[in-house]
Amino acid sequence: MLKNRTAIVTGSTSGIGLGIARALAADGANIMLNGFGNAAAIEAVKKEIAGLGATVDYHPADMTKPDQIADLIGATRTRFGAIDILVNNAGIQHVALIEDFPVERWDAIIAINLSSAFHTMKHALPLMKARNWGRVINIASAHGLVASAQKSAYVAAKHGIIGLTKAAALETAATGVTVNAICPGWVLTPLVQKQIDARAAEKGLAPDAAKRELLGEKQPSMEFVTPEQLGALAVFLCSDAAAQVRGASYVVDGGWTAQ
Fold first, then answer.
1. 6-185+226-251 has CATH 3.50.50.60 classification
2. How wide is the angle at C-alpha 186 spanned by C-alphas 65 and 158, nearest 5°?
3. Cys-Cys link to 188, which of 89, 125, 224, 247 (CB 3.0-4.6 A)?
4. What is the pLDDT of residues 47-90, one digit of tens each?
5. Phi, psi for residue 83 in degrees, rounded to 5
6. So which residues are the catalytic ones?
7. What are the residue ranges of CATH 3.40.50.720 in the chain?
8. What is the CA radius of gyration of the chain?
9. pLDDT tens digits, residue range 216-234?
10. In Å, how far from its chain's centre is CA 23?
């Protein structure tokens, strides 16, 4: 379905972004990867994605830097000739009370989790509009709909992503470009694993017990959402069947926000 389409997936060297890149590649898309990692790990990811039949490249843009984001968009256009799909997934986390929250961590989370999506769309949307086809998928979170204590920056950024998605969807509503968000609950990514490890250390819990406690607080299904499930949803949002899905926030959270 996505043969000859080109996708940028930010934060795609691991976790949710990698799961989405795999799914888009398996459906025929060319992939521009982006994210952290040492050279050997990134080469391994490139080889894996290429093994799915995709043409793949990597750009090391720091998503806190608007000039590097512009270069990511330009380099993708030069490499592949077009940008058809943009998945804004890059994200970081920090947990602390507001009064204890380091200002530099607040600034970094807002920059990567929210502002980077503005900068990528600013450059990519005109290219998509010119061809009258495009798909933007912003990875929000259950925390874009509800809050948790000690996650003020992340919650603010993810609420902002949902608002940004709606505004962009309205601006592109009369075109062949759609803009939507996906709101995952707990996914067992490296980001979440760090929270599990911290919980286990703080409370003296075994790793499995820390996982169950984390899930039990928020996610009634008591199962993690998988990157593969999110990748399948991303493929759907890129399909013709989703051409009139605009400004939506798809919740994939095991019942978290149904409570």
1. no
2. 40
3. 224
4. 999 999 999 999 999 999 999 999 999 999 999 999 999 999 99
5. -125, 115
6. 154
7. 6-185+226-251
8. 18
9. 999 999 999 999 999 999 9
10. 13
